[in-house]
């Protein structure tokens, strides 16, 4: 059970936490397009602080398989409960939105669907295949749930050959049971390990939130664990509490410290790292893929 003594008054944000609120025509265009296509985004549902910046630049992270999660993680603002049936026309709507937005890199994520036999893996795969077929120059990144550790569900996604397979471990081993009560650290590492072993051309990525109560030593240990299972892309960002009913922030880490974390990750061996207070799983995702391509081409 989560430690509910950790919940309570919202702390004031430090000066280096800045969320853009100035929208432009591109923001309005993206918002209308997503509405017209009846597509949800993690940008909105998870209260992402970078939503305005990303939508102003014409990018968004599409969230498939509904807006209701079967799990109740203590950091996440996405609604939990009993989801509706999966929408079979979703892959076509996803690819049409990608075409109209002229995306060079599409990021797909989902709520966790433990109610479905395959956890929604086939819908992920159909979306990937549709983009590869209609937009062969567009790279596809999927941010997947753990599928309860089911290997066949993971293979369903991997066989569709996304360019990036992302699964977030979220926090250090010690805090998993409190922060992600229906998930496990070992299961998440297993997902990443199997993805890394599957196909050399699929980049494996994960993310960690800072400020949930971890120590720096625990953070470094988690980085090493991720690297050792084959993860080569990493995001590190400040946990921001969505509301009073969620897990309280333990600490706000200054930008300089995030730069230190990035240096540490690169020393461990990660190919690309996005580390800053405002970094999120899909923040600058296209740029991260381009950096990896440049390194591989140079090699």
Q: Can you say what the CATH homologous superfamily is?
A: Aldolase class I
Name the shape in a single word: globular
Helicity level: 25-40%
Distance from N terminus to C terminus (CA atoms, Å) equals 48 Å
CATH architecture: Alpha-Beta Barrel
Structural class: alpha/beta
State the order of secondary-structure elements, H for helix, E for strand: HEHHEHEHEHEHHEHEHEH
Task: Give the averaged pLDDT, no decimals.
Answer: 86
* CATH domain topology: TIM Barrel
Nearest-angstrom radius of gyration? 18 Å
| Low-pLDDT ranges | 1-5
Strand order of the largest sheet: 1-2-3-4-5-6-7-8
Tally of discrete structural domains: 1
Percent in strands: 5-15%
**What is the count of β-strands?**
8
- Counting DSSP H or I runs of 4 or more residues, the number of helices is 11
Biggest sheet details: 8 strands, mixed
Main CATH class: Alpha Beta
Give a structural overview:
The protein is α/β, with parallel strands linked by helices. It has one domain (24-298): Alpha-Beta Barrel (TIM Barrel), CATH 3.20.20. The protein has eleven helices and eight strands. Strand 3, helix 5 and strand 4 form a beta-alpha-beta unit. Helix 5 (121-134) runs parallel beside helix 6, helix 6 runs parallel beside helix 8 and helix 9 (216-228) runs parallel beside helix 10 (255-268). The longest helix has 14 residues, at 121-134. Residues 1-5 have low confidence and may be disordered.
List keywords for this structure.
about 300 residues; alpha/beta
Topology at a glance:
Elements: H1 25-36, E1 40-41, H2 42-45, H3 51-56, E2 61-64, H4 90-101, E3 105-110, H5 121-134, E4 139-143, H6 151-159, E5 164-166, H7 176-179, H8 185-198, E6 203-210, H9 216-228, E7 233-238, H10 255-268, E8 272-275, H11 285-298
Parallel strand pairs: 2-3, 3-4, 4-5, 5-6, 6-7, 7-8
Antiparallel strand pairs: 1-2
């Amino acid at each position: 059970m989560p430690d509910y003594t950790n919940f309570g008054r919202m702390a004031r944000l430090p000066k280096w936490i800045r969320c853009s609120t100035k929208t432009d025509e591109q923001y309005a265009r993206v918002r209308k397009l997503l509405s017209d296509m009846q597509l949800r985004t993690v940008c909105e549902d998870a209260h992402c602080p970078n939503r305005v910046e990303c939508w102003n630049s014409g990018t968004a992270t599409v969230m498939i398989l509904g807006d209701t999660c079967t799990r109740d993680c203590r950091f996440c603002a996405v609604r939990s409960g009993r989801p509706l049936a999966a929408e079979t026309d979703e892959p076509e709507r996803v690819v049409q939105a990608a075409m109209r937005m002229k995306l060079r890199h599409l990021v797909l994520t989902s709520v966790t669907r433990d109610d479905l036999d395959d956890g929604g893996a086939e819908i992920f795969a159909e979306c990937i295949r549709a983009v590869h077929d209609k937009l062969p120059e567009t790279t596809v990144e999927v941010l997947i749930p753990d599928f309860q550790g089911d290997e066949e569900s993971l293979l369903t996604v991997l066989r569709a050959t996304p360019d990036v397979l992302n699964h977030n471990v979220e926090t250090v081993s010690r805090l998993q049971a409190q922060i992600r009560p229906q998930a496990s650290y070992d299961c998440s590492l297993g997902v990443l390990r199997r993805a890394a072993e599957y196909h050399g051309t699929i980049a494996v990525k994960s993310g960690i939130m800072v400020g949930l109560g971890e120590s720096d030593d625990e953070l470094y240990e988690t980085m090493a664990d991720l690297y050792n299972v084959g993860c080569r892309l990493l995001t590190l960002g400040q946990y921001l509490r969505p509301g009073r009913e969620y897990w309280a922030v333990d600490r706000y880490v200054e930008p300089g410290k995030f730069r230190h974390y990035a240096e540490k990750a690169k020393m461990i061996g990660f190919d690309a790292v996005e580390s800053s207070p405002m970094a999120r799983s899909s923040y600058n995702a296209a740029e991260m893929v381009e950096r990896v391509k440049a390194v591989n081409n140079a090699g």
